[in-house]
Design brief:
34% helix; 22% strand; 9-stranded mixed sheet; 8 helices
């Protein structure tokens, strides 16, 4: 059973986003610790509950998404954004990105199969994506969805960079876990051959029942110059997956003008919440 810390009160003098709370949880597989931030709408929930967004790398984008939905969610008929519960999965650090994400968002691979790190150092510990997915499915989601009024049929998973890679892994292996998948600037190059094998198994599964899901793959225009082929890989994947439209997977590719790998985050968040609404998650 996962270990759940009490909800943490704000420290004196600390600025707090309205309607948010925080706790720490440990995975029942491996005992890894996560800082979980939850934003609850001020509005009354609909009869079936609120839609929910599970947000990776919460240290970097939780506040951005909370404010985007809080400001726009009051006028959904104008903005295309309805109130939603946001569940951010982050780490015990004030840094926007923690080294632990390398382990949580990637599959096992020999160092020889991975790209060379820009600074030449060895990559941090990696290969724990399946354990992290088990934490989401067995520990985090049941806990959150027992405590908050949530419509479990309207879940969104949002990830960027290595988080975007994890989103694709989740789609390929657990396609019915979420209604909407958002893979921003996905690091397909991390272990491209391995992800391609998962994709091929996903595509070659004619016996699978039709499912109702949507996938947004996006990147910044300036990422076209990245030696990894970031945008090319993402666009080609979107094109290949578009053949699943008749089985219930709606795929969209978006490239944001003038944005790079990090600057794309605010516009990606804004696009993602409206994409989820159009896809039936909101």
């Amino acid at each position: 059973m996962q270990q759940i810390a009490s909800k943490l009160p704000p420290s004196e003098g600390e600025v707090v986003l309205p309607g948010t709370e925080q706790r720490y949880m440990r995975s029942s597989v491996g005992g890894r610790e996560y800082r979980i931030s939850v934003a609850m709408p001020a509005e009354s929930p609909p009869p079936a509950g609120f839609p929910v967004i599970y947000l990776l790398d919460a240290n970097s984008v939780f506040g951005t998404m909370v404010e985007a939905i809080r400001v726009q969610g009051g006028r959904p008929e104008k903005t295309g954004v309805a109130p939603a519960v946001i569940v951010g999965i982050g780490y015990r650090t004030d840094a926007p990105f923690a080294p632990s994400r390398y382990y949580d968002f990637t599959l096992p691979a020999a160092d020889s199969e991975l790209p060379v790190r820009p600074d030449g150092r060895p990559w941090p510990e990696h290969g724990g994506a399946d354990s992290f997915l088990t934490f989401l499915e067995n520990d985090l989601m049941p806990t959150i969805e027992s405590e908050y009024p949530i419509d479990r049929s309207r879940r969104t998973l949002f990830g960027h960079s290595l988080g975007g890679l994890f989103v694709l892994h989740t789609l390929f292996t657990k396609p019915s876990a979420f209604r909407t998948y958002v893979a921003g600037s996905p690091s397909i190059h991390w272990n491209k051959a391995q992800l391609r094998r998962e994709e091929e198994q996903f595509l070659a599964c004619p016996e699978r029942e039709p499912f109702d899901a949507a996938l947004l793959i996006a990147a910044g225009e300036l990422e076209n110059t990245h030696k990894s082929g970031m945008n090319r890989n993402a666009k080609e994947l979107a094109e290949r997956l578009s053949v699943l439209a008749d089985r219930g997977l709606r795929v969209e590719y978006k490239e944001f003008e003038g944005e790079g790998h990090i600057s794309v985050l605010p516009v990606l968040v804004n696009r993602a919440i409206r994409f989820a609404q159009r896809s039936g998650s909101f």
